[in-house]
Design brief:
Radius of gyration: 14 Å
Structural class: alpha+beta
Number of helices: 2
Order of helices and strands: EEHEEEEEH
Bound molecules: FE2/S2 (inorganic) cluster
Strand content: 25-35%
Distance between the termini: 39 Å
Largest sheet: 5 strands, mixed
Number of strands: 7
Strand order of the largest sheet: 2-1-7-3-5
Amino acid sequence: MTNHTVQLFRVGDEQETELIIETSVPSGTTVMQIIDEHNITLRRFCNQGSCGTCECTVLAGVENLQDKRNGRMPMNPKQVRSCVMEIRGDVEILITQKPSLLESAKAATQKI
Ligand code: FES
């Protein structure tokens, strides 16, 4: 099976972008699986690609991601739902979660 290089970044205390993980994963691994394997804190709510809580920004390689729900590349590299995004090539991803997203996600789910 083909492996791909994934780099995860986070915004540090000085607002700089810092590399926190560089790893090699088999094709088809989701971004969320990598996050969990490395014990990175990222809130999520639905784990099915519907609430948006787990959105991250793709810095490079958006063409190497595939939404497992429909097989498509993400439309907006700034709103990539990590729980359903499969790695198909090398990517660089910035974890950009905002606290307000969690509240809106809860509200949206309660309406369902
Ligand atoms: S946890 Fe809801 S979209 Fe990923």
